Amino acid sequence: MIKLHGFSASNYYNVPKLALLEKGIAFEEVLSYTGVGPKYKPEYLDKSPLGKVPAIETAEGYLSESRAILDYIERVHPTPPLLPDSPFDAAKVQELAQFIELYFELAARRMIPNLLSGTEPNPAVLQEFETNISKATVALAKLSTFESFAYGEQFTLADIAAILNLPIVRSVGKRFLNEDPLSKVPGLDGYCARMEERPHVKTIRADAAADQAGFMAHLKELYGI
């Protein structure tokens, strides 16, 4: 059985977790908070060389990095698929997932510590976020209409990327820009509402909420946040 190492408050951890749930694959969760410097648990570095989450433990060994883990899961458990059959459509799903990760989640990531600690971000960082998100929201509408799913008529890896990364961008925007920067993307609000009704997405959200106190206690111990 696959063992998934990490913690439920992490959107990175929840990427393979949601894939496993959607595919109906049995797995075991192993709680692993991480940090920097000497407070790393040395044994966890054997699972994830930089001590990051997630990591999975398989009969063949350990894997880290969400994208590699997703590829492994899809190859070992191809049914139900999280990629379309068509090579082009499969590539478009990967394009959209990577677009969301690079131009939305990555843009917001630098201000997550401010969001968690209740502090104000560096004005230059905030301005960069606002500029980049403005461009990305216009471009996102060219990659998806969000009519049914993020791409096509089936739940795919692009939906996992959207479900787990876009709410973070919205939270950062509402907190520091006083607006939801994604509200301008046609069809996105309705799409997000539909995705939140999926049973496994509800599980992800509930587990993340339940883990929040433990995660914040970990941050306080490690960083004083």
**Biggest sheet statistics:** 4 strands, mixed
Average predicted confidence as pLDDT: 93
What is CATH's topology name of the largest domain?
Glutathione S-transferase Yfyf (Class Pi), Chain A, domain 2
Task: Using the 3D structure, state the CATH architecture of the largest domain.
Answer: Up-down Bundle
| Number of structurally distinct domains | 2
Topology, element by element:
Layout: E1 2-6, H1 11-23, E2 27-31, E3 55-58, E4 61-64, H2 66-76, H3 87-109, H4 112-117, H5 123-143, H6 157-176, H7 188-196, H8 199-223
Parallel strand pairs: 1-2
Antiparallel strand pairs: 1-3, 3-4
List the main descriptive attributes of the protein structure presented here.
single chain; 225 residues; alpha+beta; Glutaredoxin; Glutathione S-transferase Yfyf (Class Pi), Chain A, domain 2; 4 strands; globular
Structure, described:
The protein is of the alpha+beta class. The protein folds into 2 domains: 2-80, Glutaredoxin, CATH 3.40.30.10; 87-186, Glutathione S-transferase Yfyf (Class Pi), Chain A, domain 2. Helices cover 57% and strands 8% of the residues. The protein has 8 helices and 4 strands. The protein has a 4-stranded mixed sheet with strand order 2-1-3-4, with helices on one face. A hairpin with a 2-residue loop joins strand 3 (55-58) and strand 4 (61-64). Helix 3 (87-109) packs parallel to helix 6. It is globular.
What does this entry show, briefly?
The chain is α+β, with helices and mostly antiparallel strands and 225 residues long. The chain is built from eight helices and four strands. It has a four-stranded mixed sheet, covered by helices on one side.
